[in-house]
Amino acid sequence: MKKLMICLVAVMALLFCVSSCKPSLPSGVLSKGKMTDILYDYHLALAMAHMDDNGDKGQSLAYREAVLRKHDVTSAEFDSSMVYYMRHTELLEDVYKDLTDRYNNEITAMGGSAKEGGEFANLSATGDTANVWNLAASMVFVPVKPFNSTSFDIKVDSTFHKGDRLMLDFDAQFIYQDGMRNGVAMLAVQFGNDSIAQRTIMIQSTQHYSVELSDADSLGIKSVKGYFMLMNDDNGTGVSSQTTLKLMFLEHIKLIRMHPLKPMAAPAGSSSSASSDSLRKDSASSDGKPLKPLREMKPMKAEPLKTR
C-alpha cells in the first residue's frame, strides 16, 4: 500500500511538471514582450512618417531602422523572429492580444479619440447625431485566421428613427514588408420590411475611410451588422506569404447615427400668411362688395411726330 501511494505521488508530480513546463523559444527568436514593444513602436513611427506630406518608402524604412536600434535588435533578428511567429499561430495570438490591449489602453489614456477623428470626435451615444459603436475603437489585424477579421452587430433600439442615416468612420494604417494590402469593411442594414442594403469598401492605403447607408424610404431600421477583414494577398493563386510582417491598424472607429432633419414650421403671423391675407382683402372692397372689373383700355394709335 505504501509503495502504491509513493507511485501515485510520483506520477502526479511528473504530470504537474509536464503540464507546467512550456517550450522555450529557439535561440535568436525575440520574446513575445520584445516583439510587442517593437511592433507597437513601429506603428507609432509609421504614423509619424505618414503625417509628413513628403513621406515616402525610404523615410518609412528609416523609421523602421530607428525603432530596431532603439530596442538593440538587428533587421535580421527581427525578420527571422517574424517568420517564426507567423508560423506558430499560438504565439502570434499572444503577441496580437498584447498589441491590441496596449494599443487600446494607450488610446484610452490619451482621452480616447477626442484628439482625432474629425468633426465626429466628441460625439456621445445619444442625441440627433450619435456614436453608437459598441466595440473597441482601435483594432489590429494580421492575414492569419482567426486574427484577420472582426464582425459587429449593433443593437437597434428606440433611439433609431425612420429615415436615419448611418456612417461607419475610421482611419487605417498598414505595416507591410511586402505584398498587396487587401483590407475590407462592410456595413449592412436590415430595414422594417426585411429588405437589406449593404455597402463594401476596400482598405488599401493609410488614410481616412467612411461608408454610409441610409433609410431613404423611412422604413425603419431592424438591424445593423458588418465586419472588418484583412485578406491574403494571394492574387487568386491560393498561396500567400506567411513569413513576412503584415499588419493593419484601424483606429478612431465610429458608427455615426444621424436623425433626419425636421421640417421647419412657418411661424404664426409670418410674411407669407400676411401676404395671403392681403391678397384676400384685395379681392373685396372696403364695404364688403366685390370690386368692379376695370374697363378694357383701347390701344393707342401711333401718330407721326410733327416737325417744326
Automatic annotation (TrEMBL):
Protein name: DUF4296 domain-containing protein
Biased composition, class Basic and acidic residues, residue ranges: 278-308
Signal peptide per UniProt: 1-23
Region (Disordered) location: 264-308
Pfam families: DUF4296 (PF14129)
Lineage of the species this protein comes from: Bacteria, Pseudomonadati, Bacteroidota, Bacteroidia, Bacteroidales
Keywords per UniProt: Signal
Domain DUF4296: 26-106
Compositionally biased residues, Low complexity: 265-277
InterPro entries: DUF4296
